[in-house]
């Protein structure tokens, strides 16, 4: 697999991967210290880490949580997700603190902006303040936040209950209800031996839980058979699909299963090193995850000669992302681990033969690895006994939106959408976005469809929109999301997602015509078919689904003419008005 | 090479031989078949980013420049539908940057412009993005006009792979992606690029130009006044036109 993204020899040494010296970690420290990455620091860091200046610079510019100009000492980021975001609240706080959205207040104290979904969809509205997650926002809480900012209280001294994140597990299924004793999977693995355990994993029918659904056992088999100087296990905890938060719960309350799944995978494929790539939005989970790793070392579940088994060596490090949805794509994630921009590679070759540092690598979702650990203990029949023919086992859903009890629900595959809606208290549902923006938007006449790889696949996101929701605004929100998260590598996605966003904005503003709708359909089809990776190939889904299932939401906004220009002459005069400090009627065209 | 006879792919109904390790683009170029492309240049690592070389392989969309040729592939290339796709992609490249062909020194020698003509593109079609991009005229003999950059990374790869330097890189994300220069000041003058570098000449558009050599070849006698982009073996001609009489 070749990198599109910088010299192949600048991934840094394996020792530099993970640990304090990883470029992403060093940049995080600088951002914390200076509220931005100073120019001088970029050259200094490049020299110190022996990387090209342009590589350090390009990483700074790629990830949303690094900035070239100073953010406020209180840097507040409101989620703009349709489930855990509330832009009205953002504007309210901006007004209260005299901040222009997206900018830093002149005194350098505070900046307020929006960010992509932060995975708090069951307990929003939510925000990040200096990277810390703050949930359950209310107008009262906004006022209290403003007071803390006014008083200059360090975020570390803000009331701890503001930052509480609940698991909100509403329905236990196969994985969540089965207890797990740390080390039990490894004992079973050692007892069975790698070959036999691999066969169990294959037989279990376990498929990747990130959404794509590749057979986990086959992936491990290919990787085991691939030759290289080293093999690697990567746990993809870059859970960025809006509306998804189930990995947050697994990492918070089932970390042993996840780490044990990684260790088992290492045992089978012959890897001695594993990495957990954690999204920057989940930084609050880091201290406890590191504590669990320490405990596992102490218990001989990690390190050298695991459980006394000669030559069974495996270690795990955590790498923190910094705000880039694309890094959930496995080859982009590997690029990010190699201290570069998260640009998806050209496939094939796939990571199983040429992945991290060009070595055979397994990349698995958090939930997949947790399931593998349970399968090692309970066997393939136990797992296969649940779910449907092509979708063995269960799926943990992150349910949010218009329902009475949002949270995590675990179902055996094959469950109907209607059953899920009934369980979470969703009534008068207009639409459900299954699998997040990159998934499928379905209408009520499809609620008897079933969850599973053979029908409706999902990485876990399940967003419900009631009869009063403005669906067009939802589709617009998703179009903005993809335009913001496109990595910019290929033309169809880089330019196309922006054209789609602009086209939708025009319709929402009430200037769209049937011509614009037709153009949007044409562009959406091109972006979907011709983009380089999964992001571009799925980015137009919300638009295409909505055009097919809810054409009325577009039609009702169209103007009754054949053509309206994109160009808005009055809006174009805005800059001139600002320069001349005028906003009177004479300075406007309309 | 006893099995060489079996190594063929079909492009638009025509059987084309290939050797192990060749991409569809390599095989097509060797057989004098033109597949439109901008980010590809033989000798440099395939990139697959511009998507001009999008073809359909057994009904699936793929980039000809990165997909390895394999027996049994049936490739659609010169079809009406693909020409439409490629024209749209070219229009997208035009509107995302600031391209004013009549005032650009590269006009007539510009591959983007030539591809647009080849695809019968008559306008940008989409609303212009009008991005604000910086010009870097710091270097004594090379100017960098980012308005015209199409992110093909030919200069990035040429500098790394052929010149043995690392002068250029792409930074940013999405439509904010832009070409940067690898020096502490971010200026071209502070890099080790010279006019002998391939990177100084490989730009398919007018983003990297040699200074003090404006309009030496009159319009009407430029590369694509004399040749069409689809002509076989044009790559060396394009590159030669990028160099000037007193350079080697």
Describe the model:
The complex is a heterodimer of chains A (590) and B (248). Chain A has 590 residues and is α/β, with parallel strands linked by helices. Chain A has four domains: 74-166, Glutaredoxin, CATH 3.40.30; 170-384, Rossmann fold (3-Layer(aba) Sandwich); 394-466, Ubiquitin-like (UB roll) (Roll); 470-590, Up-down Bundle (de novo design (two linked rop proteins)), CATH 1.20.1440.230. Chain A has 24 helices and 14 strands. In chain A, the strands form three sheets. In chain A, strands 5-11-10-14-12-13 form a six-stranded mixed beta sheet. Chain A has a four-stranded mixed beta sheet with strand order 2-1-3-4, with helices on one face. In chain A, α7 (184-192) packs across α14 (366-378). The longest helix of chain A is centred in the C-terminal third of the chain and has 18 residues, at 491-508. The mean pLDDT of chain A is 95. With 248 residues, chain B is an alpha+beta fold. Chain B folds into two domains: 3-78, Ubiquitin-like (UB roll); 102-247, Alpha-Beta Plaits (2-Layer Sandwich), CATH 3.30.70.20. Chain B has helices at residues 24-30, 80-96, 111-118, 154-162, 223-226, 235-242; strands at 8-11, 14-17, 54-57, 60-63, 74-76, 135-136, 142-145, 168-171, 178-181, 208-210. In chain B, strands 2-1-5-3-4 form a five-stranded mixed beta sheet, sandwiched between helices. In chain B, a hairpin with a 6-residue loop joins β8 and β9 (178-181). The longest helix of chain B has 17 residues, at 80-96. Chain B is globular, with a radius of gyration of 18 Å. The interface between A and B is large, with 44 and 43 residues.
